[in-house]
Design goal:
By secondary structure, the protein is an alpha/beta fold. It is built from eleven helices and twelve strands. It has helices spanning 3-6, 25-33, 36-50, 94-106, 126-138, 152-161, 186-198, 215-226, 256-269, 286-294, 314-324, and strands at 55-65, 111-116, 142-146, 165-167, 202-204, 207-209, 234-239, 274-277, 299-301, 305-306, 309-310, 327-328. The strands form two sheets. Strands 1, 2, 3, 4, 5, 6, 7, 8, 9 and 12 form a ten-stranded parallel β-sheet that branches. Strands 10-11 form a two-stranded antiparallel ribbon. α8 links the parallel β6 (207-209) and β7 (234-239). The longest helix is centred in the first third of the chain and has 15 residues, at 36-50.
């Protein structure tokens, strides 16, 4: 018997990474309960079957309309329900958006994401948004927007404008959802995701951890994502950024290793999706980010801000990539 075979355990054996949509709570709880090294082994093995393990896709995110959102999301400094001192700003002019997109491209981003703090856009808002989408695509970048809930007609209009991705996060498990948001239902989110799919656009959908949820809720979030009719092409995993004035400002800090576990389980459950390190990276050490890449993360947001909260600067990310031997992915996922 070879030496390496002698130390292989049943936890190390990886099942065929077929794209499944029937995960159960017990199965996913069991993944989270694996010894850390066994979990990362499984995640990295699955990752290598679908992606170059040393390549990371880079996206940039811009808040194109900030503050005064009518939703009451407990984590969000842009909610009109919370006094966070955030200044309300109207929709950005087209040229300012395109200047930011040019800068993002020059730093190596291949996708430019635009976020507006709306519960849902008005039909009249879609015309300037469509112009932004067209302008960013003309620069040679993939486009993504997050605008809240959409009607059928609005979804069709975004598709006509050439939108590549629509971001609409589930945020947390269905069971914990009501503790975080009361102004929009979990089913509302699923309905918007289905409209986006029906229109033929890619889906960017993930969630936030560290909001006081249980380990079972973190499993439930990933079940909600993986059991969609099609897996999201992009799965952003956010660590809560605690902002003074929001109901979650004093939430207990999540163990960073639990964050890594969430990334690893997401990779195993959605093997062909881009798993993106998103909000909260400023609170992760370089070593913890390296563990996340080992766990199967292969996309990041970079730039100075994620909507309204801080984010590692592009130069720092490039330095980390150089230390780890990681390459930026080219355009065209």
């Amino acid at each position: 018997m070879h030496a390496e075979a002698a130390v292989t355990t049943k936890e190390d054996r990886v099942s065929d990474p077929v794209l499944r949509h029937d995960w159960t709570q017990g199965e996913v709880d069991a993944l989270f309960a694996l010894p850390f090294n066994a979990l990362l082994y499984q995640a990295q093995t699955v990752h290598r079957r679908h992606f170059d393990p040393n390549e990371v896709q880079v996206s940039s995110l811009l808040s194109i309309k900030t503050g005064a959102c009518s939703e009451d999301c407990a984590y969000c400094p842009q909610s009109a329900h919370h006094d966070t001192g955030l200044k309300r700003e109207s929709l950005m002019p087209l040229e300012e958006v395109l200047d930011a997109a040019r800068q993002a491209k020059s730093e190596g981003a291949t996708r430019f994401c635009m976020g507006a703090a709306w519960r849902n856009p008005r039909d009249a808002d879609l015309e300037p948004i469509a112009a932004m989408i067209g302008g960013v695509k003309a620069l040679g970048l993939e486009t993504c927007v997050t605008l809240g809930m959409l009607s059928d007609e609005q979804t069709r209009r975004l598709k006509e404008a050439g939108l590549d991705y629509y971001n609409h996060n589930l945020d947390t498990s269905e069971e914990f959802y009501g503790e975080i948001i009361t102004t929009r239902t979990y089913q509302d989110r699923l309905d918007t995701l289905q409209r986006v799919r029906d229109a033929g656009m890619h889906v960017c959908c993930g969630g936030i951890v560290g909001m006081g949820e249980s380990a079972a809720d973190r499993a439930g979030l990933l079940i909600g994502l993986a059991n969609l009719p099609r897996h999201p092409e992009s799965v952003p995993i956010n660590m809560l950024v605690k902002v003074e004035g929001t109901p979650l400002a004093d939430a207990a800090a999540l163990d960073p290793l639990d964050f890594v576990r969430t990334v690893a389980v997401a990779r195993i459950m959605m093997p062909a999706s881009r798993v993106r390190l998103s909000a909260g990276r400023s609170d992760l050490s370089d070593e913890m980010q390296a563990l996340c890449f080992l766990a199967g993360a292969n996309s990041i947001f970079y730039g100075e801000k994620l909507l309204t909260t801080g984010n590692p600067e592009a130069q720092r990310d490039k330095q980390l990539f150089a230390r780890l031997g990681l390459r930026m992915a080219g355009l065209g996922y």
